[in-house]
Amino acid sequence: MRVYLALAAKRHDVPADVLSRARTVIETAFPVPADVIRAREWHGRGVSLLAWTNEPGDTRQPPLISEHDGRVIGLNGHLADPADVTRLPGDSVGGCFSAWIARDGELTASTAVNRVCPVFYAETPDLHVVGSRALLVHLAAQPVDRIEHDVLALQTMIRQGFFLSDETPYKGVTALRPNARLDVQDGRRTIAETPLPEAAPAPTSARAKRAAIGELAEALLATVTPLRDLSEPVNLALTGGRDTRILAALLHAARVPFRVTTNGLDTHPDVIIARQIAARLKVEHTVIAPQQTAQKDAVLVEHPLSRTWETLRTCEGMTSAYESIVSYLPYSGKPTMSGQSGETLRAGSLNLLQTDLGDKALLRRITTTFAKDEKMFTADANEHARELARPWLARPNRLEALDHLYIWYKVGRWQASARAGSLRRGDPVRPFLDNRVVRAALSLDQGWRLSEGVIYDLILRFAPQLRDVPIEGKPWRFAEGMTKRWFWSRLPAGHMPTARTDGGWSWRTSPGPALTDILRRQVLGNLDVLTPVVNADEVRALFADPVVRKPAQAWHLYTVSTLLTGLYPGKEPEGLEQITVSTPDPAR
User: Domain Asparagine synthetase: where (predicted)?
Assistant: First the structure.
């Protein structure tokens, strides 16, 4: 994981005390042990670029800070081709990254098309402060060691568990939008944005479809081609679903050595189908069976305060503790890959939730995404949510609006925050997050992508031998209604319904009375910090039953409450006992 902080003075030089404070607070803002943090710095006239990493050596390219043609460049994330560092910032560069560029009197920070490697910025009377961690930017911009929260901005955290805006939990700190560039020259800041690519109409002939998919296929191949030269095979987490199947086919087509692993029992569709895929592609397949234990009527789980402290530390108050964040492990350079964000190739998860694609239904989806549970919130909070929704509701193309909402917020805020946990462990290649791949996907008609015809054709393009392998879950969308399957038709193989297993129960979604009581006492005992955005009576009603009826919202409230009452930054809670949560009685 890499962390950057850029400081640009409005007059004269960057004050020494600000630099000193930044060096001190990095141990708070960087969620790894202090003894694994390494630092690099560059200082020029009126501009400083500070960088930190927990990478154990200097072998990863491009370097943490490098100099090219009079420019100092930092790269947060990775490039498909490290040599492209000299082309930054650039719309056509492949990879998953944000760029930091400095020289005397000048500073540039830019996001890629999905801003999954974020840039945050703030301003003081004397400085422009720009960084890859929101809390670090806030602490560097504060004249004293104090945190000020933007309580109204946190209304979206309580509704959805992440940010549906460019706001952050910290006053004065804003997330740079997707496909945007922040420039500071001689103390003056400007921000330029480029709209996301507009989708072309769906092609009407087979030849036109093949041509339209060609750019997307090339972009996907470019993400993995450099992996051919690695010293060990890529490990792909493979399921029976759509997104990881594309990756298996992609690695096969690119002639990248890889092996696959699948979690589950031999009877689970994921394992059955993944085994077929591995056999067709002639790659090693390892099945990791779940641990078998004696039947128990309860489980012991970590105390919510410990869980939330780690989530706040890792995600900076921008992801709810309801989510399971990848825990810290020492950094590893081993190549890994998963299907994260594959919905980009299928018009985004918000469109995929829809069965009704009528105008009213799509408008309702946009509205409820921003203004969910209105009764729970104050008039000010609801008006704020409606204001955030307004430009999206005004878009005439509803499928495009939901498609872009997914990129802006589900990827650009939720994943950007939550993936910080896994980035501490390494920097895995994520083809579906690649700048070129996302641009190429967004250029294809939303309805066509939503039909799943695009990803099906990609699979056949990369690995036609997978044509007869069934899919796990629901049938392919484009095949619904087709009844005959001739050898010359496009109708794919059948599907295997998702298996229902005991793994469907979760203590987070069925918290039981003991865990509910802990959540309740924190939230109701500190209602005063939440009342600027929530109605106290509605919150009390939420916790009225012995077991809370909406566990996700209870966790969101708990996360925001602990943030506002000062759980983090602060010392990790100690001496907290585990909580007993009863498992469901199958006889009931």
Answer: 217-453
Residue 505 in this model has a pLDDT that exceeds 90:
no
Q: How many CA atoms lie within 13 A of 296 on its CB side?
A: 9
For residues 148-162, give the mean pLDDT: 97
Task: Report the largest interatomic distance among the alpha carbons of the chain, rounded to a whole angstrom.
Answer: 75
User: What DSSP designation does 162 have?
Assistant: B
**Tokens in use for 51?**
């960088």
Number of CB atoms found within 10 A of residue 144's CB: 5
- By C-alpha distance, which of 502, 583, 588 is closest to 298? 583
Least confident of 93-107, 267-281, 392-406, 468-482: 468-482
Kind of pairing, strands 38-44 and 47-53?
antiparallel
Nearest partner of 361 among 388, 390, 407, 399, judged by Cα = 399
Does residue 83 surpass a pLDDT of 80?
yes
The DSSP secondary-structure symbol of 16 reads H
**What is residue 487's predicted lDDT score, i.e. its pLDDT?**
44
Question: Mean pLDDT, to the nearest integer, of 195-200?
Answer: 96
What does the pLDDT look like over 529-564, one tens digit per residue?
A: 999 999 999 999 999 999 999 999 999 999 999 999
Extract the tokens encoding 449. Answer: 């992508």
Q: Could you tell me if 538 and 376 are in contact, meaning their C-beta atoms sit under 8 angstroms apart?
A: yes
N-terminal to C-terminal alpha carbon distance within the chain: 47
Kindly list the structural domains of the chain, giving each domain's residue range(s) and its CATH number in brackets, ordered by start: 2-193 (3.60.20.10)
By the 10 Å C-beta count (0-12 exposed, 13-18 middle, 19+ buried), 550 is classed as middle
The encoded tokens of residue 255 equal: 């002639």
Please tell me the distance from the alpha carbon of residue 249 to that of residue 243, in angstroms, as a whole number. 10
Question: What's the rounded Cα separation, in Å, for the pair 367 and 208?
Answer: 36
Examine the pLDDT at 491 and tell me if it is beyond 80. no
Say yes or no to pLDDT of 110 above 90.
yes
Q: What is the pLDDT, as a whole number, of residue 486?
A: 44
Single-letter code of the amino acid located at 477: R
Q: What's the one-letter identity of residue 252?
A: H
For 328-396, give the DSSP string. P-------EE--TTGGGGGTHHHHHT-S--SHHHHHHHHHHHHH-SGGGB-HHHHHHHHHHHHHHHT-S
